[in-house]
Amino acid sequence: MAYGLLQGKRGIISGALNDSSIAWKIAQRAKEEGATFTLTNAPIAMRMGEIKKLAEECNAEIIPADATSNEDLEKLFTQSQEILGGKVDFVLHSIGMSPNIRKGRAYTDLNYEWFKQTLDISALSFHRMMQTAYKLDAINEWGSVVGLTYMAAQRTFPFYTDMAEAKAMLESIARSFGYHYGKYRKVRVNTVSQSPTQTTAGSGIGGFDKFFGYADAIAPLGNATADQCADYCITLFSDYTRMVTMQNLFHDGGFSMTGVSAEIMDLVNVK
Ligand code: NAI
């Protein structure tokens, strides 16, 4: 059901790779709620072509941009304003990639060049996006910026390797830039810490399926789906959350606050 929560709002949505991407669901919900927006992804993801289907469905233009390139991001914000007819009201950062995870490197055997790429793509890009928008003054007053994160920023999940550091940095950037953008244009900046979700990036993590089941058995509400994450992000883009900023918001069915569940206790046979 749609409520018109984003009626008249303009935005930029990154990270929709295929129909399991969290950003894909967010784009569909944003459209239903009345927003107009541009879609962006790395040029290499563009060649896979699936994003065109989403663009047609949402009547949105696609602007290719590598999130590690200042030039691409300037183009993204400039062209988005031209296409949409003004400054934007919301920005979604839904970008993550670790070459170390892709190539199966253990945390105790990281390749540092790849580690730097992980941080550049998955964390610094959040700062880069906001710094670009700030300098171009491309976000309207009371606008909203959301980045997607994972709880490995606070607690250790061994298989998450260097992405844990990237997420800790991403969340820190939300706090720091949230201060500056709040002062400058009353723009709020938050991260949403989502449950494990079956997507291309999610399933690339070692042992993902088992961990997905574990998290689902711990959380009293079970794992939050990508569709539910989309609903939550829509509220953060809407005018109903204007005073929420610099927060890391858990969207995980209660996982982060649960020590252990009865289901997990039943699996442990201690006399
Ligand atoms: P996904 O694989 O569909 O999305 C990741 C996106 O990052 C892709 O669209 C990819 O093309 C894009 N990307 C990679 N390098 C890029 C670059 N240099 N420039 C621009 N875009 C680039 O997977 P998912 O799960 O939807 O990921 C979205 C976000 O959600 C990520 O930040 C991820 O860490 C986060 N997240 C995912 C969870 C999961 O279990 N799937 C749980 C919690 C957070």
Automatic annotation (TrEMBL):
Look up the record and give one Gene Ontology term from the biological process aspect. fatty acid biosynthetic process
Describe which pathway this protein belongs to, using the record's wording: Lipid metabolism; fatty acid biosynthesis
Query: Is Lipid metabolism among this UniProt entry's keywords?
Result: yes
List the catalysed reactions.
Answer: a 2,3-saturated acyl-[ACP] + NAD(+) = a (2E)-enoyl-[ACP] + NADH + H(+)
The protein here is known as: Enoyl-[acyl-carrier-protein] reductase [NADH]
Q: Which SUPFAM superfamilies does the entry link to? A: NAD(P)-binding Rossmann-fold domains
Q: Which UniProt keywords apply?
A: Fatty acid biosynthesis, Fatty acid metabolism, Lipid biosynthesis, Lipid metabolism, NAD, Oxidoreductase
> What residues sit in the active site?
Y150 (proton acceptor), Y160 (proton acceptor)
Q: Name one GO molecular function term.
A: enoyl-[acyl-carrier-protein] reductase (NADH) activity
Note the Gene3D superfamilies from the entry. Answer: NAD(P)-binding Rossmann-like Domain (3.40.50.720)
Any one Pfam family match given in the protein's UniProt record, by short name: adh_short_C2
